[in-house]
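Section: Multi-chain targets

For targets with more than one molecule, the full set of components is provided together so that the structure can be written out for the assembly as a whole rather than chain by chain. Components appear in the order listed by the source. The example entry contains two components.
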Amino acid sequence: MNLEPKNLRKHIINMAYTGSSVHIACAFSLVEICSVLYDKIMTFNNSNPDDPTRDILALSKGHGVMAIYACLKEMGVIEQEHFDKYFTDGSLLHGLGEPRVPGIEVLGGSLGHGLPVAIGMALGLKREGSNRQVYCIVGDGEINEGTIWEGLLFAGHHKLTNFTVIVDANGLQAMGEIDEILNLEPMGAKFKSFGFHTIECDGHNVKLLEDAFKDKTHEEVQKPKAIIARTMKGKGVSFMENDNIWHYTRLNPETLDKAMAELQEGEE
Amino acid sequence: MRTVLSNKITQSAVDNPKFVALTGDHGYALFDEIRKTRPEQFLNVGMIEQAMIGLAAGLTQVGHQTLVYGLASFIPMRVIEQIKLDVCYSKLPVKIIGDGAGVVYSVLGCSHHCAEDVSCLRSLPHIEIYSPGDPEELRICYDESMAYEGPTYLRVGKCDNPAINTEKLTSTKPYLTHEVLDSDTLFVTTGAMLGIIHEYAKEFKVNHLSIMKLKPLDESLAEILPKYKRIVCFEEHTRYGGLTSALTDFMIDRQIPIPTMHPFNLEDKFANHCGSHQYALSEHNLSNEQIRSRLSDLASEF
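Its structure, encoded as tokens over all components, is:
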């Protein structure tokens, strides 16, 4: 099992090319977050994605689902054949997260849905006294949605210490820069004021992410945790980085080769 | 009706320690009993209706039994996409109650009127829809909806119409409240129209059928409906997608010839003026007096 970010990005590129899929840059910004969660943090049974003792990773930002698919492929939860058939008629994997797929916990296509559902799970687990954890990835663009703030208000009020929200803060949304469309800063102050223990870090630095996930301060102060992961849309392939056109652009043989060459750089 | 509902909700909490009733700050007296006796199984989430549906879905996914309550103009209308995606998609057994359906909250105005809830929900996969008309219908609808393994919507309308049922119902199947063997006219009601139309059926000497479960419709209707030459449908709901639509859809899907249909329903408009429930209905030609007058005009056919 190789959950190295570079390897995951290769899977995403291959998959996006096979399915002629858009949303490559949306997936690239949260690769390290998913990698660290599955590799270092979460309790997850690869041979049974429905294991009732598992921790939950809810991808509210469904547009980044290829990053999760890539992890689940490495973990053996989703078989190779489904990647070979990506977007073909009758295939398993949609372009946005749907919970009929093994390992996908919430429906993440319509933004602002996954977070309240994930908070409901955290509430239910807390009521049972379970030590299972719920992690939820939202996009910074996604948090335009009112349901996000409804959910955060609830999680903060009910002191859901088993709940961690990770903001994939790549600074871009579908049609432009977040600062220009609907400014969210100061984001950290917003989460703090909603009752979250808030950590900001480089969302592509696996060590810092791991530290942020392992930080237990929120339990001491009896708050849910927010990790604002400062990321870059398209991270990992130079010509995609911070270029919003890769929210919409499909790979062609030329850009496929160029992207793969960058991701394979330094390998034997 | 509300006493029945209050007792039922409290009983669900007693029966199942994992039962949780959620409300978005509505239903004050309705929850008095559960708040007093089982406070840990009652959750006023605040006025976050949309997130509340997600919360209920998440709670259900990890093994809780959830009931979500609101006024019909908010639950389901404000949260229709959450019901579709968070609940119906995964066929989660979230039990949804929409209270004050129709134009019950007449004086509060259009924000609190709800003519379209059944129509919107009928088009969503997996969800079952119940529309009781008196306390006994409510009781059986509640019990059946709780037993169903998927999502349900319980539409609760006007509470103070005369109750029809003095004996226990054993199922939510359509049933005749009044039978006139030599009449080929059938009055059909759902929800709050039950009591008054039962009276009019007796007066006009025609048959009256109560349908409290609107989705799916019971297959017994395939035998009942063809017996009549004309069917008069009564509902405190828009013409589009409600009882009349459900019945004609049912007949079309089964190649049953459609008899003469006379729909009585809320018209395709918002309220113009303020007034009592009967006044609000009168703007739709649906007050008790107007219904009686319209039926008198039709009576020569009966």
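The first helix of chain B runs from residue 2 to 15.
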